[in-house]
Write a structure and sequence with these properties.
Layout (H helix, E strand, L loop, with lengths): L1 E5 L4 H12 L3 E6 L8 H7 L3 E5 L5 H8 L4 E6 L15 H4 L12 H22 L7 E3 L13 H7 L5
Parallel strand pairs: 1-2, 1-4, 2-3, 4-5
């Protein structure tokens, strides 16, 4: 089968892609740069099994056009932004993102994580409906706040850095 991984070159996405390949999936990875991660471990294990594509998941058409190629068995959303430009900590993303990406002024938590997820859900719903798939899997994964309250410094991260909703 085929799996579409949004944010497939990031911190979580690389692991999802690798695991999907080991499970026998052909993977399409969408990221802003569309290039494989530089990790030699990732490239040797998954060479030829992952189709890396450049695209902006904030644009629903990016996701829809790939799904329209057909044959997809599921979509995994791994896109996330820990520190946006407005926080003043955007440059730290190059250390925590897994892909070394840096946000621009338009890259906020809301536009990167939430908007891309909403667009993906809408594109997946349309794809499932057009292909008469009543139980098409969509998975949202985020490491943005995984365990912060339970780790050293977690309370400070929640108080000073976490987005306010």
């Amino acid at each position: 089968g085929k799996l579409l991984v949004l944010g497939g070159t990031g911190f979580l996405g690389q692991t999802v892609c690798k695991r999907a390949v080991l499970e026998g999936y052909q993977v399409t990875s969408v990221s802003r740069r569309g290039t494989p991660p530089s990790s030699s471990d990732a490239s040797t294990l998954t060479a030829g099994f992952i189709d890396y594509r450049a695209g902006d998941a904030r644009q629903k058409e990016t996701i829809s056009s790939i799904l329209q190629e057909g044959g997809y068995d599921g979509v995994v959303h791994c896109i996330g932004l820990l520190f946006d430009d407005a926080s003043g900590l955007g440059t730290l993303n190059r250390f925590v993102s897994g892909s070394g990406s840096l946000p621009d002024a338009e890259s906020t938590y809301d536009s990167i994580t939430r908007l891309s997820a909403f667009n993906a859900i809408e594109a997946v719903s349309e794809y499932a409906s057009m292909n008469q798939k009543s139980d098409f899997p969509f998975v949202f994964i985020s490491a943005a706040e995984a365990g912060w309250p339970d780790m050293a410094g977690g309370a400070q991260i929640e108080q000073y850095l976490a987005p306010e909703w």
